[in-house]
Amino acid sequence: MLKQLTHTQVWVHDQDEALAFYTDKLGMEVRDDVTLPEMGNFRWLSVGVPGQPDVSITLMAVPGPPVFDDDTRAQIQELLAKGAAGALFFGTDDCRASYEGLKGKGVEFQHEPTERPYWIDAGFRDPSGNQFRMVQAR
Fold it and tell me: Whose C-alpha in 10, 21, 41, 72 is 20 to 30 A from the C-alpha of 100?
């Protein structure tokens, strides 16, 4: 039986650029940063929200062969560029204050904080194109 969610993954174009964005701009902490030479220098890189140690976000470079052929890799990268590769939702106690703080750190928002019937939210993307929502319960 499943117990809990431990990791989620987002595709990234550049792991170093993603690491800087998630730690410097979003304030996350590094959970794992391991390079495996025996696997062609595969890098397992994960970050997480401070105070929530049981969930990590794996920042995964889009692999080529033998995992994906070149066409599949290109399709994933195209979906990322369009912001169509999925989304993560982050909770906040004050969406407007968090919006101002993140915007001040250079996070580019697609949607300003907006009151919805179910919560207040704002939308932004990472440098690879992944879509995120920041939500405040009402």
Answer: 10
| Residue 8 pLDDT | 95
What pLDDT digit, counting tens, does each position of 108-118 carry? 999 999 999 99
Measure the CA–CA gap between 53 and 49, rounded to whole angstroms. Answer: 7
CA atoms of 134 and 130, how far apart (whole Å):
13
Instruction: Retrieve residue 123's tokens.
Output: 């939308």
d(CA 119, CA 137): 5
Q: Is this model's pTM higher than 0.85 or not? A: yes
**Mean pLDDT, residues 12-38:** 96
Strands 56-61 and 119-125, sheet pairing: unpaired
Q: Which residues touch 99 (CB under 8 Å, ≥6 apart)?
A: 109, 112, 113, 122, 134
CB crowding 18-49: b at 16 or more within 10 Å, else e: bbebbeebbebeebeeeeeeeeeeebebbbbb
In the numeric block, which tokens belong to residue 71? 């066409």
